[in-house]
Amino acid sequence: MSTVRYEVVEHDGGWAYKVGDVISETHPTHEAALKAATDAAARQTVAGSTDGIVYQDREGQWHEELADGHDRPSTKVVDGH
To answer: How far is Cα 6 from Cα 11, in angstroms, rounded to an integer?
Structure first.
């Protein structure tokens, strides 16, 4: 099982959270960004329904798969403050 890391960072005159190379919207306070990261991390672990998905990879190839809605990653919120 993979772990998705949410890191709270200073950003654009405020605070945001970062997942990989993606940065969230800017929040006015550290506390607001930490709450947003914690909320997003919690939603990431919620099971959904199993369903078919279609996606295109970086090479332009299309793939069809059955996505198990119960196969959710673990999450970790890191306070970079």
So the answer is: 14
60: left (phi over 0), alpha (psi -120 to 50) or beta: left
Q: What count of other Cβ atoms lies within 10 Å of the Cβ of residue 27? A: 20
Nearest-angstrom CA–CA distance, 52 and 30: 39
Has this prediction a pTM greater than 0.85? no
The neighbour count for residue 81, using CB atoms within 10 Å, is 11
- Residue 11 burial (C-beta neighbours within 10 Å; 0-12, 13-18, 19+): middle
Kindly give the parts of the chain with pLDDT less than 50.
none
Q: What does the chain come to in residues?
A: 81
pLDDT tens sequence across 34-44: 999 999 999 98
- Tell me how far apart the alpha carbons of residues 3 and 80 are, in angstroms, rounded to a whole number: 17
